[in-house]
Amino acid sequence: MTADLPPAIICQVVKVHDGDGPIHCANGAKIRVAGVQAPDFASAEPCRKRRRGYVCDDRKALASKRVAERLTLGKRLVCQPVDRSYQRVVARCALPNGNSLSCSLLARGAATKWQTYWTRYRMGGCA
Question: Which InterPro entries match (predicted)?
Fold first, then answer.
């Protein structure tokens, strides 16, 4: 963790972009969920080449987003920053019940473990 990262962020979730973020907080923070990767819109597999470009199946991305919304929307998360990515804070977030958001997304099949970052951010095990 670099010195310019803020302390823990209390995030009242007002919007979820997709399964791994950014999660938009009422205080303006944008958080990318640490250690996991979820399908992205417009690039979700399977994409098929067509005459006018690629056609992607966004159903997996939408399903992942809906899981993330059910877990977080309108709730208060406590997020510990571990890095920055673009204009977002990458953070390990705890749900109101104390469970890891990353582990909860994995358990529900909404994301996969991104091993490189899981190790780098010392995510630990999931219960």
Answer: SNase_OB-fold_sf
Taking only the tens place, the pLDDT of each residue in 47-69 is 666 666 655 667 888 899 999 99
Pick from 101, 98, 99, 94: which is nearest to 78 by CA? 94
CA–CA separation, 105 vs 108, rounded Å? 5
Domain count, the chain: 1
Question: What residues does 16 pair with on adjacent strands?
Answer: 23
Looking up residue 84, the CATH number of its domain turns out to be 2.40.50.90
Q: Residue 4 to residues 27, 82, 94: CA-CA distances in angstroms?
A: 19, 10, 22
Residue 116 in any domain: the answer is: yes
Residue 103's SS3 state is helix
Has residue 3 been placed in a domain? Answer: no
And the tokens for 123?
Answer: 């995510």
Give the global pTM: 0.84
E strand intervals along the chain = 9-16, 23-25, 30-33, 36-37, 47-50, 53-56, 76-85, 88-94, 112-113
Structural tokens at position 86: 């673009």
Q: Which domain holds residue 58?
A: 9-120
